[in-house]
């Protein structure tokens, strides 16, 4: 699928939902992307192609939507996948490396952590996520990757909603901008 066809499919399968009274914002509904065989098949290769020069050795993504998108990209790159957890629930019973994020798009200050043994010195980690707004979670994940002795090479996202400054700082590359949805 060409990149312009994928853009069209992403826009067509996306919905803004109104959760009703007591909730001031429309909420994004990405379920149409996962439900579409053509989008699901195209996403991994398209996101992997955003960093053609970087030869990542591993993909790292935060729960929960990152656990859908990250493995698609890892398969396209023929590398492995590392889950990043958000702190405060279900502890992982082994050594973890954590970093605290700045307030994210919901105003939360999350801790993000990975199993320390799953990232190694020499790893070149591509951070993959569905949507980047403030960049807070992506930045914290980059700190985790660095603390493990690996190198964060950038962030590949389906939707980019961050400022140009954040995109430059974190090397965010995206398939579409939020304004297109
Ligand atoms: O750039 P930021 O402001 O840090 O926001 C980006 C993060 O927010 C979303 O996760 P969220 O925890 O909201 O939802 P999810 O659990 O559905 O992935 C998205 O999946 C990114 O991980
Ligand atoms: N899934 C999402 N929907 C809307 N805004 C977001 N910002 C970060 N993730 C988002």
Protein described:
By secondary structure, this protein is α/β, with parallel strands linked by helices. The chain has one domain: Rossmann fold (3-Layer(aba) Sandwich), CATH 3.40.50.2020. 33% of the residues lie in helices and 29% in strands. The protein contains six helices and nine strands. It has helices spanning 3-13, 31-35, 37-48, 66-77, 136-147, 164-170; strands spanning 15-17, 27-29, 58-62, 80-86, 96-100, 111-115, 124-132, 151-160, 172-177. The strands form two sheets. It has a seven-stranded mixed sheet with strand order 5-6-4-3-7-8-9, sandwiched between helices. It has a two-stranded antiparallel ribbon with strand order 1-2. Strand 3 (58-62), helix 4 (66-77) and strand 4 form a beta-alpha-beta unit. The protein is globular, with a radius of gyration of 16 Å. The protein starts with a helix and ends with a strand. This is Adenine phosphoribosyltransferase. Its EC number is 2.4.2.7.
């Amino acid at each position: 699928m060409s990149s312009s066809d994928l853009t069209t499919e992403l826009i067509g399968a996306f919905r803004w939902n109104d959760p009703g009274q007591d909730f001031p914002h429309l909420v994004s509904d990405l379920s149409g992307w996962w439900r579409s065989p053509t989008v699901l098949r195209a996403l991994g290769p398209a996101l992997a192609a955003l960093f053609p020069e970087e030869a990542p050795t591993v993909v790292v993504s935060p729960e929960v939507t990152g656990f859908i998108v990250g493995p698609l990209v890892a398969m396209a790159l023929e590398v492995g996948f590392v889950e990043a957890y958000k702190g405060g629930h279900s502890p992982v019973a082994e050594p973890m490396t954590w970093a605290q994020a700045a307030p994210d798009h919901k105003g939360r200050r999350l801790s993000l952590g990975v199993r320390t043994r799953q990232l190694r010195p020499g790893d070149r980690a591509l951070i993959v996520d569905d949507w980047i707004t403030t960049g807070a979670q992506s930045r914290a994940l980059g700190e985790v990757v660095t603390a493990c002795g690996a190198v964060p090479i950038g962030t590949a996202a389906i939707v980019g909603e961050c400022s140009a400054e954040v995109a430059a700082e974190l090397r965010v590359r995206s398939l579409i901008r939020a304004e297109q949805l």
